[in-house]
Sequence to fold (445 residues):
Amino acid sequence: MRRQIVDQIPLVPMFSRHRHARELAEIVRVLDACPELEQLVERDLLRGGVAATKGRRGLTARQVLRAVVLKQMKGYTYEELAFHLSDSQSYRAFCRFELIGPPLKRSTLQENVARISPATWEKLNQILVTYAKKTGVEIGKKVRIDCTPVEANIHPPNDSSLLWDVVRVLGRRLMHASKLVTVAWCDHRKDAKRRAVGIWQAPTAERRKPLYVRLLKLTERTIGYADQAVAALARVDTRKARLLGLRISSVLVLGRRVVDQAKRRVLRGESVPAVEKVVSIFEPHTDILIKSRTEILYGHKLCLNVGASGLVLDAIVHQGNPADVTLAVDMIERHRDRLGQSPEQVVFDGSFASRANLDAIKALGVHDVVFTKSKGLRVEEMAQSSQVFRALRHFRAGVEGCISFLKRCFGLDRCTWKGFASFLAYVQASIFSANMLLLARHRLG
Fold:
């Protein structure tokens, strides 16, 4: 039957019959089965004295949580997420938005997502793992543990680029300060940029050194102007002046360290230890991670505990670059605390192997503790038999696919949120979204 017009269209958005829409509908069922997830998110949204019964009607905890899952799952920016939530019927049904309503703003989504703390994201993942165990998707008796780097959102650091960053950021903030107080300063940003570009293009160290000397002088002068601006802003009793003074002071601390390390490395030829280096004034928490002799990454080390189902049972972001061998026992203890029992079988990469780790993990009640590289340990000491050893070693290879899935599909290769707390939240949000999708696929299967 074909009608000339449709008398009445539905007012409630519905899921389509596409496979992706079926996955979203199954995720909704999982979320509905765990109402404590939304309660934790709501607690964070109301943190800081925000009244739930006053002011304009904001996004609900349910909408914010599901919007984050959608964002991480599809790799959207906030601008793209706002568009798709306004345009897609299935996405509006997933996030429980009305079919006809005002368009969402990027800033609204960003502000609400930023209120969810890293500790809350970690608790959300724990609840999800508990639900997976209750429903039989993951029993936690056989696990694989590995580490992977997550990059911070910075450019590859070198002394000239860091000095140029200090000059341009302080110059921009000095312009703002000059609107509030009287500051005598000279804008060296163009001159500093020319010196930095000259350093990048110089063919030899002899050509670069005089350019570095000039760039260092410009940076130190700009730091001097900023010191005067901070002192002047401190005498103005307004909130805007206080905030601007704090922002300039935070850059000054890092700027002095950048100048010091550039002088030591370039002018005096010293080798600066990695723990003393500043690799970014925007993300100062970033660590230097040496993955191989030719590959150096800038971010943080992530240690993952992945079950047989592919779900990430636990994840820790480490500061510094601790050796893998120091992390093995702690991961098993955390597993026991979270799931109520130690795993029966666990397999590690060869970098975790040591006699002390083997003995300590066996003492925690784990029957088979396999390291892919024995490093002096006999197969009989690690596993019940050579067949079990080979089976667990092959099982460990699957963790590489899980890590690749997280990085390719959920943005875990590079964190785009600013600050260390946001870095932790980003990692946990990506893992939560991946676990949600895997749970939905297990249930559909």
